[in-house]
Write a structure and sequence with these properties.
301 residues; alpha/beta; Rossmann fold; DNA polymerase, domain 1
């Protein structure tokens, strides 16, 4: 049964960014509903190949029946290992649309959305042991504070962590509604959805180890790309976008690269064009597009 997924954000721009060669080998590391993959396949010839990754079991229902296509049910942080397993050592382009798919947001039971009452879960890979329940009920106060502060960029992180730890001494926090009630004093009526979204983002990033996975993935990309190969990446929040931007600029996540005696330094990638964001028309059609940022890079000759 095919799962209902929305149209991908910046579909044409992201695939255009790959500068597709009809006989090239490409990777879509965030398959989801298959929108980007279908667009890539439409531009490939008979000799072209597309490999896609998705760690979510639900995405497997959207597998495309095309002999040029292979779907790999794994986290993209293992991209090099699983491409090797399929005999692929170098590719012409890699596409990524980071964050949570619209399908994951829309299925109440997955616990990703602030709109629904649900058990605390938020696992992108449903086989993982760590869930939102474990983070909220078993993390020590200091670690909870770090999660809210680092990944949610929430100023009242220390007080939030303290309140959760106090509450769960009498009973566990099982549902999203319970968590909302525990943190009610931090949810001003006019900004309730914004703050809730930050709280959910923080827990979700921790549950899925998204920042570590993104770093692991980015570090593999220069070696995977052929010369003149392209990366085309969409980010939805500043933590992701900052890592992508810094890695494209100087091959590092923080600090500056080492320079030679002439003050020059080599970087594994070079930026293509500037930052691309969705049009007002696209944002009106798809509210999720409003925070999307597309960055394109190429492996220099």
């Amino acid at each position: 049964m095919t799962m209902q997924y929305h149209n991908p954000v910046l579909l044409k721009e992201t695939v255009d960014g790959l500068a597709i060669k009809p006989d090239g080998v490409y990777v879509d590391v965030t398959f989801g509903g298959g929108g980007h993959s279908k667009e890539i396949l439409s531009r490939l010839g008979d000799a072209g190949r597309l490999y896609a990754f998705d760690q979510d079991q639900d995405a497997l229902a959207n597998a495309i029946d095309d002999e040029r296509f292979t779907l790999i049910n794994e986290n993209f942080r293992y991209v090099k290992r699983f491409l090797r397993f399929h005999g692929v050592k170098a590719v012409d382009g890699i596409l990524a649309d980071f964050g949570v798919s619209s399908h994951q947001f829309d299925v109440a039971a997955r616990g990703f959305s602030t709109r629904f009452e649900a058990k605390l879960d938020m696992r992108m890979n449903q086989q993982n042991k760590l869930s939102a329940y474990h983070v909220v009920n078993e993390y020590e106060e200091e670690r909870l504070r770090q999660v809210f502060s680092q990944y949610g960029e929430l100023r009242p992180a220390p007080a939030m962590a303290r309140l959760i730890v106090e509450y769960r001494q009498s009973e566990p926090i099982v549902t999203s509604e319970q968590l909302k009630q525990v943190l009610r004093k931090f949810l001003p009526p006019r900004h309730e959805n914004k703050v809730l979204a930050q709280i959910y983002q923080a827990i979700r990033i921790e549950v899925n180890q998204e920042i570590e996975a993104l770093k692991d993935f980015l570090l593999q990309t220069p070696e995977l790309l052929k010369v003149s190969g392209r990366l085309s990446f969409i980010s939805y929040h500043s933590l992701e976008d900052r890592l992508v931007k810094r890695f494209i600029r100087n091959g590092l996540f923080e600090g500056e690269p080492e320079r030679d005696v002439f003050g020059n330094f080599e970087v594994p990638l070079k930026k293509v064009n500037g930052l691309i964001v969705p049009s007002k028309a696209e944002i009106q059609l798809n509210n999720r597009a409003r925070s999307a940022k597309l960055r394109i890079a190429e492996k220099p000759k």
